[in-house]
Design goal:
The protein is an all-alpha fold. It is 75% helix and 0% strand. α2 runs parallel beside α5. The chain is elongated, with a radius of gyration of 17 Å. The relative contact order is 0.16.
């Protein structure tokens, strides 16, 4: 049986993962409007990953005989100025997600819920990867600048990203 405090924070994290998917879909739409199909693809793939992350937690709560309480998904900010600003927002968002995941880890430790603490380790590792990927794009944009030719080549690079189901161990 899942501890009620842990159940609550996991339900909140499901909401945050689905919110992240909405945020990335909004960014994808913004990039699509600019004709940056690669940037649009990158954020769309990210949205798919976030949905999957939410579903992994959803399934975990059910496996532990917990109650699912879906919450309203907040409307994401869609005030974007340029690709660099969007990716800086992404990095800020991913750092917030990392902080949320660390709260789940801390609470599961405090509640002596070793199963959840073990479960959440995958998310901690995943967040390191998420932040690194975003930082890589930011570094490229900052180093090469926002010259149209450079953005075109970066857009082509980001277009190659494909959605792959997570490497979550119990999936």
């Amino acid at each position: 049986m899942l501890n009620k405090n842990v159940e609550g924070i996991l339900n909140a994290q499901i909401n945050k993962e689905f919110y992240s998917a909405y945020l990335y879909l909004g960014m994808s739409a913004y990039f699509e409007q600019l004709g940056l199909k690669g940037f649009s693809n990158w954020t769309k793939v990210q949205a798919q990953e976030e949905m999957e992350h939410g579903m992994i937690i959803f399934n975990y709560v059910q496996e532990r005989d917990g109650d699912i309480e879906l919450q309203e998904i907040e409307k994401p900010d869609n005030d974007f100025q340029n690709p660099l600003q969007v990716f800086e927002k992404i990095l800020e968002h991913e750092k917030e997600v990392t902080s949320n995941i660390e709260r789940v880890a801390n609470l599961s430790e405090d509640e002596c819920d070793r199963a959840t603490r073990h479960f959440i380790n995958w998310y901690i590792s995943e967040q390191v990867e998420e932040e690194a990927q975003v930082l890589d794009v930011i570094k490229k944009i900052k180093f090469f600048g926002t010259d149209c030719t450079i953005l075109y080549h970066l857009d082509k690079e980001l277009e190659e990203r494909e959605y792959k189901s997570s490497n979550y161990p119990n999936k």
